[in-house]
Design a protein that fits this description.
Elements lengths: L8 E6 L12 E8 L3 E6 L2 E9 L13 E4 L2 H15 L8 H17 L7
Antiparallel strand pairs: 1-2, 1-5, 2-3, 3-4
C-alpha cells in the first residue's frame, strides 16, 4: 500500500509466539497515526491496544520476535490459506505410513506458528 491514511482498516494475524496457543483469531484494527517511519494501529478506541508497524515493510515494531503480521484485506489471508491447502492436496507428497503422518504433523505445527488453522 503506497499511501497509508488514518482510519484505514487493517487485519492482524497472530504469528510466532502469539500464534502458538492457536486460540487467537485474526483481528481488525484501525490506523490511528502515520509518521515518517512508523504507523500505529488501534483496536476500537483503546490506546492500550496500540501496536506500531514499520511503513517500509509493514512489519511489527518490537525488540523481540514479532507477534503480528499485518494485512490490508481479509482476502489476502484467505488466499494464502487456499493456496497452501491446494499445494498440499496435489499429491506431490507421496509417502506411506508413519513418514507421511510425521511430515503432516510438522506441517500442522508450522501452520499453527504462522497463525493458520488448517488441520490435515
Amino acid at each position: 500500500m503506497s499511501k497509508l491514511k488514518i482510519g484505514t482498516k487493517v487485519f492482524l494475524k497472530p504469528i510466532n509466539n502469539k500464534a502458538r496457543s492457536g486460540n487467537i483469531p485474526v483481528q481488525e484494527y484501525e490506523v490511528k497515526s502515520v509518521a515518517r517511519k512508523y504507523f500505529e494501529v488501534w483496536q476500537d478506541e483503546r490506546e492500550t491496544s496500540a501496536l506500531k508497524f514499520y511503513i517500509e515493510n509493514n512489519s511489527h515494531v518490537t525488540k523481540y520476535s514479532p507477534d503480528w503480521k499485518l494485512y490490508f484485506t481479509m482476502q489476502e489471508i484467505v488466499y494464502l490459506k487456499k493456496n497452501l491447502r491446494a499445494y498440499l492436496n496435489t499429491g506431490l507428497i507421496r509417502m506411506d505410513g508413519n513418514m507421511r503422518d510425521h511430515l503432516l504433523t510438522w506441517i500442522n505445527r508450522i501452520l499453527r506458528v504462522h497463525g493458520l488453522r488448517w488441520m490435515i
